[in-house]
Each structure stands twice: as structure tokens, then as C-alpha cells.
Design goal:
The complex is a heterodimer of chains A (about 150) and B (about 110).
Chain A lengths: L9 E8 L3 H9 L1 H7 L5 E5 L6 E7 L5 E12 L3 E8 L8 E9 L5 E8 L14 H17 L2
Chain B lengths: L7 H10 L2 H10 L6 H5 L6 H13 L3 E3 L8 E3 L2 H35 L1
Antiparallel strand pairs in B: 1-2
Classes of the chains: A alpha+beta (about 150), B mainly alpha (about 110).
GO molecular function (chain B): DNA-binding transcription factor activity
Protein name (chain B): Transcriptional regulator
Pfam families (chain B): HTH_20 (PF12840)
Chain lengths: ~150, ~110
């Protein structure tokens, strides 16, 4: 069991962007920017970008069903760090995925963004398959991470 | 963040993995094949309950059972777990796509500023 690290249950994605850090940070934290690139074809129902505030949105799946999602802002440390929980807005929904985003200045006014998704370890099996689609899978993903940690 | 509709096999795998007893059984089987009796040893639950868990794992294709009637040793099957790790990878691909859109968007607003 890995107790002090999240390496066994996280995904890290990083990319260098040709824009100043302030601009890239704004693209992640200001509604008029976020809606232009983050979730295509989504509808925003609530936007409150401050610690504890929510961004609630919904998006249609290829099967036509509309799925609600929720981003809860945890920390907005301009212009270096953003922390939020990504989950759903449905009743009995499984726990959120903690997401840590860091913004680093690089040469020639470029910015490196590193996104770390951390899945919780403890599976809430009562809720596991109650919420369909990605959310159910997300819950099961926790179960998988839990299992992999035992190998 | 787009979501991916998982197929039935993945749903079965996820459902099978959602139980800690079954995950512990899989962890044991990762070390090699085992009989029902051996698998039951660490748990304070009845043999019928163990059998039920094994059936769920077998149905999900996570284990294969031997044909010897009495012992029916179980063996781990890796393929469904690989599917799950591919699904996990889809989260990464999803963000790579998001980053593509962000890159394009940043270029556009930088250009408008000039």
C-alpha cells in the first residue's frame, strides 16, 4: 500500500503554451474565456469563481442525454495555481476528482501548464453504480485505483 | 471535459472491482492461481458468499476457473484490467484535446491584442 503518495491514483498532463502566464491563468479562471475552449457545447448554469464557489454546467452526450457537471473552486492563487474538484451535480453522485493546475513561466513569455488529476482511494461501493455514464465509471475508477494500490 | 460512454464489458469490470473483498481476491490471484478454499482463508465470510464473489469476477472475465470439479482453481485474467487502464488513459487524451483547443484559443486572443 502506498500511503503517502498519490502517484498510484493520479494522471498528470502538461503542455507549454505560447502566451504569458497571466493570460493562460485567465483562460482557466474567467468565465468568458473558459466557455470558449474548456467544455464544447456546454451550457453554464452557475459561475462563481472564488474559493468554495461553483461552476455548474451541463453537456449533451452523443446518445442525446444531458449530463450535469460541477466544478467546485478550492483555491485560486493568481497567477500560479488553481485547485478545483470536478464531479457531477446529480443526487447520489460519487465523489469528485481533485484537480491541481500549476502555471509556470518559461522562456520567451511562454507558460507551462501542469494538470494533476487525483482520484480518491476509498470506493463508496453503495454509490458505485447508481450514477450512470462517466460518473459511475469515475466511482469505479476509484475502486480500480484502490485495487491497484494493493498489488 | 468530455465523457466517454463505456461499453458493457467495462461496466462489468467496474462493478466487479467496486467491492473490497473481490479486489482482495484479485490481489491474491495476481500472485498465482488459487483454490476457493485458499481464496476464502483471509475472509470471515461463508463459502457460499465467496462463491458468489467468484461468480461475479468470472462473469466480468476477470478470472478463469479450472474444470476440476471439486477444487476449480481460479486464475487472474488481465485483459479486462487492461481495458480499464485504457479507459483511465482516456482522461489524459481528453485533456490533451482540451489543451489543443486552449492552444488555439490563446493564439487567437494573442493575435487580437497585437
Amino acid at each position: 500500500m502506498m500511503a503517502n503518495t498519490t502517484a498510484d491514483r493520479e494522471i498528470v498532463v502538461t503542455r507549454k503554451f505560447d502566451a504569458p502566464r497571466e493570460t493562460v491563468f485567465a483562460a482557466f479562471t474567467e468565465r468568458e474565456h473558459v466557455e470558449k475552449w474548456w467544455v464544447p457545447n456546454s451550457t453554464t448554469h452557475e459561475w462563481d469563481a472564488k474559493p468554495g464557489g461553483l461552476w455548474r454546467y451541463s453537456m449533451p452526450n452523443p446518445d442525446g442525454a444531458v449530463y450535469p457537471f460541477k466544478v467546485k473552486f478550492i483555491e485560486i492563487a493568481k497567477p500560479t495555481r488553481l485547485v478545483y474538484d470536478y464531479g457531477t451535480d446529480a443526487e447520489n453522485a460519487p465523489g469528485p476528482v481533485r484537480t491541481n493546475v500549476t502555471f509556470e513561466e518559461e522562456e520567451n513569455g511562454k507558460t507551462r501548464v501542469t494538470l494533476q488529476l487525483v482520484f480518491a482511494t476509498v470506493a463508496d461501493r453503495e454509490q458505485a453504480m447508481q450514477y450512470g455514464g462517466a460518473a459511475g465509471a469515475q466511482q469505479a475508477l476509484k475502486a480500480l485505483a484502490d485495487y491497484l494500490a494493493t498489488l | 471535459m468530455t465523457i466517454q460512454t463505456e461499453n458493457d464489458t467495462l461496466s462489468l469490470t467496474f462493478a466487479a472491482l467496486a467491492d473490497p473483498t473481490r479486489r482482495a481476491m484479485l490481489a491474491r490471484l495476481a500472485q498465482g492461481p488459487a483454490t476457493v478454499k485458499e481464496l476464502a482463508e483471509p475472509f470471515k465470510i461463508s463459502m457460499p458468499a465467496i462463491s458468489k464473489h467468484l461468480k461475479v469476477l468470472e462473469h466480468a472475465g476477470l478470472i478463469e476457473r479450472g474444470r476440476e470439479a471439486q477444487w476449480r482453481p481460479a486464475q487472474l485474467q488481465a485483459a479486462p484490467l487492461k481495458d480499464v487502464s485504457q479507459w483511465l488513459e482516456s482522461y489524459r487524451e481528453n485533456w490533451e484535446e482540451n489543451f489543443d483547443r486552449l492552444d488555439e484559443y490563446l493564439r487567437k486572443i494573442q493575435k487580437e491584442k497585437e
